[in-house]
């Protein structure tokens, strides 16, 4: 039995907890050195386990009082009721009047769930079975192109959630990819993208997956047409098909499949609906990597690994659904983000994976978090009452260290940062020779890598005082430049290895962090109206760019002048 979600969001700023947090913040003098000295158990008390993730929150700028007030805030805004409403399939995406059920995509099939009179679990299991059967056919070589050759390259054509999740996960799980198979991703409507990704491909061994929830996205459909045209031209040039209607439709049947919620539009494009995989309007694009949108990944890593990926999501869902709030990692991390955004004037949040395979994770999180929580109105249409969505950004360590960490260590802005690492690398290498100094012969390079993770979070937390700098014999005029203030907050996340399950856990963790923040702010984290205006204007402007004088004259002076200049330069 779940409680009804609140139709009108609680204004968090009117709660007693908000008042306490305001007061606590006004009186807080961050002192991680002092807090650790006074409480030897701080690291232990602030560290939690969520599925396989070991999460150390102790280097955050919070005291027990602050954490208690944050948890009281969660209570006062009705977080638990809204979480339960999401899991139960209530229409918490109110502006689109939809359920929000990405959690159903990874629910074990023996746990039925009926939503809007539909057996959601059965639907998910059926579609997943289709995706797995297709994946097996491609992997085994049973699926062949027009010349009978098996598939060697899959090109996923999609954008936003139909690209960022699959590409991030493909890169992260590269060691699990079947030998001889490669997946490429085309997303940008810049024709360079499709041109570069197809340049060296053999059309007879290439399979395109057109992934689009709506199957109406300009970029994806344009790229799909370009890819189809490339396929036809190159197959004809190779003598693999006749240059005829029949030859072309045979090529599409054997070299194109689709993933969409709009199967009628898939058919209109010329793809046989039998070669299409569906999902549902209750899966948001940025929450869809674990739906059929992940078909390219399922082919690459295989059904067993994909099932592990889903199991990882589910393990984190269960943690979020059942762990007490004061041990609930997504809840705590979401509340910490609220603390920094609304009480400590942080505007951005860095995500710094110490795992090269997670190099696209920050980009993935940008859509997840910023398309979800970059809102100025609440779910009842009234203005938000406080700051919302931070700018998420990041690069893998240690590359970031040699680029922007200067600002995190010594800049004037507070940048909470999540450090993410795995204990066991996919490619354990030893430095056979060493450098004759700090790096000994035989040194485990991953150990050196993680020494950087631990060093950075330590330096950010505890800094270096002027006296410590002076004690090193630094000239007085350089002392201030070499001081590190410390008290720069970080969260450390450690996992045993980057398995499919761990990746699923990480993604679900951030999905739920995003949800928690959205609930506190009273916003609908599942719509994205802010992307619509630019899309519409692009369609209106396209004729002006193509030479229509009336369309050009209809533009504002700046836009008209830019288009005119573009046309001159292009000519
Ligand atoms: O424009 C934003 C957006 O709607 C995202 O929310 C979505 O992930 C992306 O476009 C792609 O949409 P589709 O999968 O329908 O092509």
Automatic annotation (TrEMBL):
<comment type="pathway">
    <text>Carbohydrate degradation; glycolysis; D-glyceraldehyde 3-phosphate and glycerone phosphate from D-glucose: step 2/4.</text>
</comment>
<dbReference type="GO" id="GO:0048029">
    <property type="term" value="F:monosaccharide binding"/>
</dbReference>
<dbReference type="GO" id="GO:0005829">
    <property type="term" value="C:cytosol"/>
</dbReference>
<feature type="active site" description="Proton donor">
    <location>
        <position position="371"/>
    </location>
</feature>
<dbReference type="InterPro" id="IPR018189">
    <property type="entry name" value="Phosphoglucose_isomerase_CS"/>
</dbReference>
<keyword id="KW-0963">Cytoplasm</keyword>
<dbReference type="GO" id="GO:0097367">
    <property type="term" value="F:carbohydrate derivative binding"/>
</dbReference>
<dbReference type="InterPro" id="IPR046348">
    <property type="entry name" value="SIS_dom_sf"/>
</dbReference>
<dbReference type="GO" id="GO:0051156">
    <property type="term" value="P:glucose 6-phosphate metabolic process"/>
</dbReference>
<comment type="pathway">
    <text>Carbohydrate biosynthesis; gluconeogenesis.</text>
</comment>
<dbReference type="GO" id="GO:0006094">
    <property type="term" value="P:gluconeogenesis"/>
</dbReference>
<dbReference type="InterPro" id="IPR035476">
    <property type="entry name" value="SIS_PGI_1"/>
</dbReference>
<protein>
    <recommendedName>
        <fullName>Glucose-6-phosphate isomerase</fullName>
        <ecNumber>5.3.1.9</ecNumber>
    </recommendedName>
</protein>
<dbReference type="GO" id="GO:0004347">
    <property type="term" value="F:glucose-6-phosphate isomerase activity"/>
</dbReference>
<keyword id="KW-0324">Glycolysis</keyword>
<comment type="function">
    <text>Catalyzes the reversible isomerization of glucose-6-phosphate to fructose-6-phosphate.</text>
</comment>
<feature type="active site">
    <location>
        <position position="402"/>
    </location>
</feature>
<feature type="active site">
    <location>
        <position position="535"/>
    </location>
</feature>
<dbReference type="InterPro" id="IPR035482">
    <property type="entry name" value="SIS_PGI_2"/>
</dbReference>
<keyword id="KW-0413">Isomerase</keyword>
<keyword id="KW-0312">Gluconeogenesis</keyword>
<dbReference type="InterPro" id="IPR023096">
    <property type="entry name" value="G6P_Isomerase_C"/>
</dbReference>
<dbReference type="InterPro" id="IPR001672">
    <property type="entry name" value="G6P_Isomerase"/>
</dbReference>
<dbReference type="Pfam" id="PF00342">
    <property type="entry name" value="PGI"/>
</dbReference>
<comment type="similarity">
    <text>Belongs to the GPI family.</text>
</comment>
<dbReference type="GO" id="GO:0006096">
    <property type="term" value="P:glycolytic process"/>
</dbReference>
């Amino acid at each position: 039995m779940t409680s009804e979600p609140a139709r009108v969001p609680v204004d968090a700023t009117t709660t007693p907890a908000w008042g306490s947090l305001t007061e606590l913040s006004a009186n807080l003098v961050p002192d991680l050195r002092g807090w650790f000295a006074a409480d030897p158990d701080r690291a232990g008390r602030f560290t939690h386990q969520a599925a396989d993730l070991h999460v150390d929150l102790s280097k955050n700028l919070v005291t027990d009082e602050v954490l208690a007030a944050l948890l009281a805030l969660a209570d006062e805004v009705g977080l638990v009721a809204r979480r339960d409403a999401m899991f139960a399939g209530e229409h918490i995406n109110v502006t689109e009047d939809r359920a929000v059920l990405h959690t159903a995509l990874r629910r074990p099939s023996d746990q039925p769930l009926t939503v809007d009179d539909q057996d959601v679990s059965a639907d998910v299991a059926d579609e997943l079975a289709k995706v797995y059967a297709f994946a097996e056919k491609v992997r085994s070589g049973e699926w062949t192109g027009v010349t009978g050759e098996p598939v060697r390259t899959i090109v996923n054509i999609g954008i936003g959630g139909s690209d960022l999740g699959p590409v991030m996960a493909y890169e992260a799980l590269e060691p699990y990819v079947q030998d001889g198979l490669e997946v490429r991703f085309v997303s940008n409507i810049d024709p360079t993208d499709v041109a570069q990704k197809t340049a060296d491909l053999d059309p007879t061994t290439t399979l395109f997956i057109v992934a689009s929830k709506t199957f109406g996205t300009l970029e994806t459909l344009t790229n799909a047409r370009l890819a189809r045209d490339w396929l036809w031209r190159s197959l004809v040039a190779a003598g693999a098909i006749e240059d005829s209607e029949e030859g072309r439709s045979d090529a599409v049947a054997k070299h194109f499949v689709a993933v969409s919620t709009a199967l009628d539009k898939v058919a209109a494009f010329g793809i046989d609906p039998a070669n299409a995989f569906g999902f549902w309007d209750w899966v948001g694009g940025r929450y869809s990597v674990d739906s059929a949108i992940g078909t390219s990944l399922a082919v690459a890593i295989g059904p067993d690994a994909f099932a592990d990926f889903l199991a990882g999501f589910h393990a984190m869902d269960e943690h979020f659904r059942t762990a007490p709030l004061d041990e609930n990692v997504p809840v705590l991390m979401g509340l910490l983000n609220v603390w920094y955004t609304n009480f400590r004037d942080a505007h951005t949040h860095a995500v710094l994976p110490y795992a090269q395979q997670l190099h696209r994770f920050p980009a993935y999180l940008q859509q997840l978090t910023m398309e979800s929580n970059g809102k100025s109105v609440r779910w009842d249409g009234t203005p938000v009452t406080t700051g919302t969505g931070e700018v998420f950004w990041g690069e893998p360590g240690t590359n970031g260290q040699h680029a922007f960490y200067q600002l995190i260590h010594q800049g004037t802005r507070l940048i909470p940062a999540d450090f993410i690492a795995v204990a066991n690398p996919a490619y354990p290498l030893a430095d056979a020779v060493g450098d004759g100094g700090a790096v000994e012969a035989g040194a485990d390079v991953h150990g050196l890598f993680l020494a950087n993770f631990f060093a950075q979070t330590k330096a950010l937390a505890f800094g270096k005082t002027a006296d410590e700098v002076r004690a090193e014999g630094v000239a007085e005029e350089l002392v201030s430049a070499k001081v590190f203030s410390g008290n720069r907050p970080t969260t450390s996340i450690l996992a045993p290895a980057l398995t499919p399950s761990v990746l699923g856990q990480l993604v679900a963790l951030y999905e739920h962090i995003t949800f928690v923040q959205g609930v506190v702010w009273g916003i609908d984290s599942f719509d994205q109206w802010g992307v619509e205006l630019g899309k519409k204007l692009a369609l209106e402007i396209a004729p002006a760019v193509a030479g229509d004088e009336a369309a050009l004259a209809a533009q504002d002076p700046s836009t008209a002048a830019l288009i005119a200049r573009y046309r001159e330069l292009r000519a």
